[in-house]
Amino acid sequence: MMIAVEGGEVWTDDSGGDGPPLVLLHPGVGDSRIWEPVLPALTASYRVIRYDARGYDRSPAPTAKFSLLADLISVLGCYGLDRAAFVGCSQGGGSALGLTLEQPARVSALVLLCPGIPGYPWPEEPDELDAEYERALDAGDVDAMADLLQRIWAGAGPTPEVMEQLRSAARAEVSSGDMQQDDPPVYDRLGEISVPTSLLVGDADYPPLIQANREAAARIRNCELIVVPGMDHLPPLREPGLVLRTITSTLARAGW
Q1: Is the distance from CB of 143 to CB of 171 less than 8 angstroms?
Q2: Selection from 223, 200, 62, 39 nearest residue 70 by Cα
Q3: Which residues are within 8 A (CB) of 219 and not within 5 positions of it... i.e. 6 or more apart?
Q4: Is the torsion defined by CA of 137, 142, 148, 152 positive or negative?
Q5: What is the pTM of this model?
Q6: 128-162 pLDDT, tens per residue?
Q7: How confident is the model over 211-222, as a mean pLDDT?
Q8: Beta-strand relationship, 8-14 and 47-51
Q9: For residues 169 and 18, what is the distance between their CA atoms, to the nearest angstrom?
Protein backbone atom coordinates (compact mmCIF):
# COMPACT_ATOMS: atom_id res chain seq x y z
CA MET A 1 0.00 0.00 0.00
CA MET A 2 1.03 3.62 -0.37
CA ILE A 3 1.92 5.47 2.82
CA ALA A 4 2.65 9.13 3.38
CA VAL A 5 6.18 10.37 3.96
CA GLU A 6 7.19 14.00 4.29
CA GLY A 7 6.34 15.71 1.00
CA GLY A 8 5.40 12.50 -0.80
CA GLU A 9 4.54 8.82 -0.54
CA VAL A 10 6.13 5.40 -0.92
CA TRP A 11 4.84 1.93 -1.75
CA THR A 12 5.14 -0.54 1.11
CA ASP A 13 4.36 -4.21 1.70
CA ASP A 14 3.65 -5.86 5.06
CA SER A 15 3.42 -9.65 5.14
CA GLY A 16 1.53 -9.50 8.42
CA GLY A 17 1.50 -12.33 10.92
CA ASP A 18 2.64 -12.69 14.51
CA GLY A 19 6.34 -13.25 13.82
CA PRO A 20 9.06 -10.86 14.92
CA PRO A 21 9.26 -7.79 12.66
CA LEU A 22 11.94 -7.76 9.98
CA VAL A 23 12.50 -4.75 7.71
CA LEU A 24 14.15 -5.19 4.29
CA LEU A 25 15.89 -2.18 2.70
CA HIS A 26 16.78 -2.46 -0.98
CA PRO A 27 19.95 -1.24 -2.72
CA GLY A 28 20.39 1.85 -4.84
CA VAL A 29 21.03 -0.45 -7.81
CA GLY A 30 17.63 -2.11 -7.50
CA ASP A 31 14.21 -1.99 -5.88
CA SER A 32 12.26 -4.05 -3.35
CA ARG A 33 11.66 -6.85 -5.87
CA ILE A 34 15.26 -7.87 -5.21
CA TRP A 35 13.98 -9.60 -2.04
CA GLU A 36 11.60 -11.93 -3.89
CA PRO A 37 14.00 -14.92 -3.91
CA VAL A 38 14.09 -14.89 -0.08
CA LEU A 39 10.58 -13.65 0.75
CA PRO A 40 8.72 -16.99 1.00
CA ALA A 41 11.17 -18.37 3.55
CA LEU A 42 11.31 -15.13 5.54
CA THR A 43 7.55 -14.59 5.71
CA ALA A 44 7.12 -18.12 7.07
CA SER A 45 8.94 -17.06 10.26
CA TYR A 46 8.83 -13.26 10.45
CA ARG A 47 6.56 -10.31 9.83
CA VAL A 48 8.39 -8.85 6.84
CA ILE A 49 8.08 -5.21 5.80
CA ARG A 50 9.70 -3.88 2.62
CA TYR A 51 9.19 -0.77 0.52
CA ASP A 52 10.40 1.03 -2.57
CA ALA A 53 12.38 4.21 -1.97
CA ARG A 54 11.05 7.29 -3.76
CA GLY A 55 11.26 6.96 -7.53
CA TYR A 56 11.89 3.20 -7.46
CA ASP A 57 9.43 0.80 -9.11
CA ARG A 58 6.03 1.30 -7.41
CA SER A 59 6.91 4.48 -5.47
CA PRO A 60 6.28 7.83 -7.18
CA ALA A 61 9.18 10.06 -8.08
CA PRO A 62 9.96 12.66 -5.41
CA THR A 63 8.56 16.14 -5.79
CA ALA A 64 10.31 17.61 -2.74
CA LYS A 65 13.65 17.26 -0.99
CA PHE A 66 13.85 14.07 1.10
CA SER A 67 16.25 11.78 2.92
CA LEU A 68 16.30 8.00 2.96
CA LEU A 69 16.69 7.86 6.74
CA ALA A 70 13.73 10.18 7.35
CA ASP A 71 11.58 8.07 5.02
CA LEU A 72 12.61 4.90 6.86
CA ILE A 73 11.60 6.44 10.17
CA SER A 74 8.25 7.44 8.64
CA VAL A 75 7.63 3.87 7.45
CA LEU A 76 8.41 2.49 10.90
CA GLY A 77 6.02 4.98 12.45
CA CYS A 78 3.25 4.08 10.02
CA TYR A 79 3.48 0.43 10.99
CA GLY A 80 3.93 1.14 14.70
CA LEU A 81 7.31 -0.59 14.86
CA ASP A 82 9.16 0.39 18.01
CA ARG A 83 11.83 -2.27 17.50
CA ALA A 84 12.77 -4.58 14.63
CA ALA A 85 15.63 -6.35 12.91
CA PHE A 86 16.93 -4.79 9.68
CA VAL A 87 18.42 -6.24 6.52
CA GLY A 88 19.94 -3.55 4.33
CA CYS A 89 21.58 -4.05 0.95
CA SER A 90 23.98 -1.38 -0.34
CA GLN A 91 22.05 1.92 -0.06
CA GLY A 92 19.66 0.18 2.33
CA GLY A 93 22.58 -0.84 4.51
CA GLY A 94 23.56 2.78 4.88
CA SER A 95 20.03 3.64 6.01
CA ALA A 96 20.04 0.75 8.51
CA LEU A 97 23.35 1.97 9.95
CA GLY A 98 22.03 5.51 10.21
CA LEU A 99 18.94 4.35 12.09
CA THR A 100 21.02 2.21 14.45
CA LEU A 101 23.10 5.22 15.41
CA GLU A 102 20.31 7.81 15.52
CA GLN A 103 17.64 5.64 17.20
CA PRO A 104 19.46 2.60 18.64
CA ALA A 105 16.51 1.40 20.73
CA ARG A 106 14.63 0.55 17.52
CA VAL A 107 17.22 -1.95 16.22
CA SER A 108 17.59 -5.49 17.59
CA ALA A 109 19.93 -6.89 14.90
CA LEU A 110 21.58 -5.87 11.63
CA VAL A 111 22.30 -7.81 8.47
CA LEU A 112 24.34 -5.67 6.09
CA LEU A 113 24.70 -6.88 2.51
CA CYS A 114 27.56 -5.03 0.76
CA PRO A 115 26.43 -1.85 2.54
CA GLY A 116 27.11 1.71 1.59
CA ILE A 117 28.90 3.49 4.43
CA PRO A 118 27.95 7.20 4.62
CA GLY A 119 30.97 9.23 5.63
CA TYR A 120 33.55 6.71 4.41
CA PRO A 121 36.43 8.46 2.57
CA TRP A 122 35.65 7.05 -0.88
CA PRO A 123 38.32 7.32 -3.57
CA GLU A 124 37.45 9.40 -6.60
CA GLU A 125 35.79 7.55 -9.48
CA PRO A 126 37.75 7.31 -12.72
CA ASP A 127 36.93 10.38 -14.81
CA GLU A 128 35.85 8.32 -17.81
CA LEU A 129 33.22 6.45 -15.78
CA ASP A 130 31.86 9.68 -14.31
CA ALA A 131 31.70 11.28 -17.74
CA GLU A 132 30.02 8.28 -19.36
CA TYR A 133 27.41 8.08 -16.63
CA GLU A 134 26.68 11.80 -16.71
CA ARG A 135 26.17 11.71 -20.47
CA ALA A 136 23.70 8.86 -20.16
CA LEU A 137 21.92 10.55 -17.25
CA ASP A 138 21.64 13.87 -19.07
CA ALA A 139 20.17 12.03 -22.06
CA GLY A 140 17.77 10.04 -19.87
CA ASP A 141 19.19 6.89 -21.51
CA VAL A 142 18.07 4.21 -19.06
CA ASP A 143 19.59 1.32 -21.01
CA ALA A 144 23.00 2.99 -21.25
CA MET A 145 22.92 3.79 -17.53
CA ALA A 146 21.97 0.19 -16.71
CA ASP A 147 24.79 -1.14 -18.88
CA LEU A 148 27.31 1.03 -17.04
CA LEU A 149 25.90 -0.02 -13.66
CA GLN A 150 26.26 -3.64 -14.75
CA ARG A 151 29.94 -3.14 -15.54
CA ILE A 152 30.60 -1.66 -12.10
CA TRP A 153 28.23 -3.52 -9.78
CA ALA A 154 27.14 -6.76 -11.47
CA GLY A 155 30.34 -8.36 -12.65
CA ALA A 156 28.98 -11.86 -12.06
CA GLY A 157 26.82 -11.53 -15.16
CA PRO A 158 23.83 -9.69 -16.72
CA THR A 159 20.88 -12.03 -16.16
CA PRO A 160 17.39 -10.69 -17.06
CA GLU A 161 16.58 -10.27 -13.36
CA VAL A 162 19.79 -8.35 -12.75
CA MET A 163 19.29 -6.04 -15.72
CA GLU A 164 15.70 -5.27 -14.69
CA GLN A 165 16.97 -4.25 -11.26
CA LEU A 166 19.61 -2.01 -12.82
CA ARG A 167 17.09 -0.43 -15.20
CA SER A 168 14.81 0.25 -12.24
CA ALA A 169 17.69 2.02 -10.52
CA ALA A 170 18.43 4.04 -13.65
CA ARG A 171 14.79 5.09 -13.98
CA ALA A 172 14.81 6.20 -10.35
CA GLU A 173 17.98 8.23 -10.91
CA VAL A 174 16.46 9.97 -13.92
CA SER A 175 13.18 10.74 -12.15
CA SER A 176 14.67 11.85 -8.82
CA GLY A 177 17.07 14.54 -10.04
CA ASP A 178 18.72 16.26 -7.08
CA MET A 179 15.84 15.73 -4.63
CA GLN A 180 17.63 13.17 -2.43
CA GLN A 181 19.60 14.68 0.44
CA ASP A 182 22.58 13.05 2.11
CA ASP A 183 22.00 11.28 5.39
CA PRO A 184 24.34 11.88 8.34
CA PRO A 185 27.78 10.20 8.10
CA VAL A 186 28.19 6.99 10.08
CA TYR A 187 31.72 5.76 9.43
CA ASP A 188 33.37 7.50 12.37
CA ARG A 189 30.60 6.31 14.74
CA LEU A 190 30.49 2.61 13.85
CA GLY A 191 32.19 1.69 17.12
CA GLU A 192 28.99 2.74 18.92
CA ILE A 193 27.03 -0.16 17.39
CA SER A 194 26.81 -3.24 19.58
CA VAL A 195 23.73 -5.17 18.39
CA PRO A 196 24.37 -8.54 16.71
CA THR A 197 25.55 -7.67 13.20
CA SER A 198 26.64 -9.55 10.10
CA LEU A 199 28.28 -7.94 7.09
CA LEU A 200 28.31 -9.98 3.89
CA VAL A 201 30.23 -8.83 0.82
CA GLY A 202 31.40 -10.60 -2.34
CA ASP A 203 34.95 -10.59 -3.62
CA ALA A 204 33.62 -9.76 -7.13
CA ASP A 205 32.07 -6.50 -5.89
CA TYR A 206 33.45 -3.03 -6.64
CA PRO A 207 36.94 -3.06 -5.06
CA PRO A 208 36.65 0.24 -3.10
CA LEU A 209 33.33 -1.01 -1.68
CA ILE A 210 34.96 -4.25 -0.52
CA GLN A 211 37.66 -2.28 1.30
CA ALA A 212 35.07 0.03 2.87
CA ASN A 213 33.10 -2.99 4.09
CA ARG A 214 36.17 -4.65 5.60
CA GLU A 215 37.04 -1.48 7.48
CA ALA A 216 33.44 -0.99 8.62
CA ALA A 217 33.15 -4.56 9.91
CA ALA A 218 36.35 -4.09 11.92
CA ARG A 219 34.85 -1.04 13.62
CA ILE A 220 31.47 -2.57 14.56
CA ARG A 221 31.47 -4.55 17.78
CA ASN A 222 29.90 -8.01 17.59
CA CYS A 223 30.09 -8.00 13.78
CA GLU A 224 30.65 -11.17 11.74
CA LEU A 225 32.31 -10.46 8.37
CA ILE A 226 31.51 -12.89 5.54
CA VAL A 227 33.42 -12.54 2.25
CA VAL A 228 31.83 -14.59 -0.53
CA PRO A 229 33.89 -15.81 -3.49
CA GLY A 230 32.50 -14.79 -6.88
CA MET A 231 29.58 -12.72 -5.57
CA ASP A 232 28.95 -9.15 -6.75
CA HIS A 233 26.73 -6.32 -5.47
CA LEU A 234 23.39 -8.17 -5.69
CA PRO A 235 23.47 -10.86 -2.97
CA PRO A 236 19.72 -11.62 -2.81
CA LEU A 237 19.75 -12.51 -6.52
CA ARG A 238 23.14 -14.23 -6.59
CA GLU A 239 23.18 -16.15 -3.29
CA PRO A 240 19.64 -16.25 -1.82
CA GLY A 241 20.34 -19.36 0.27
CA LEU A 242 23.38 -17.77 1.87
CA VAL A 243 21.48 -14.54 2.48
CA LEU A 244 18.73 -16.51 4.24
CA ARG A 245 21.22 -18.39 6.40
CA THR A 246 22.97 -15.15 7.31
CA ILE A 247 19.70 -13.52 8.32
CA THR A 248 18.52 -16.43 10.45
CA SER A 249 21.88 -16.93 12.16
CA THR A 250 22.21 -13.22 12.97
CA LEU A 251 18.68 -13.02 14.35
CA ALA A 252 19.37 -16.13 16.42
CA ARG A 253 22.27 -14.26 18.02
CA ALA A 254 19.72 -11.59 18.99
CA GLY A 255 17.54 -14.23 20.66
CA TRP A 256 15.01 -14.62 17.85
Answers
A1: no
A2: 62
A3: 187, 190, 191
A4: positive
A5: 0.97
A6: 777 888 899 999 999 999 999 999 999 999 999 99
A7: 97
A8: antiparallel
A9: 33
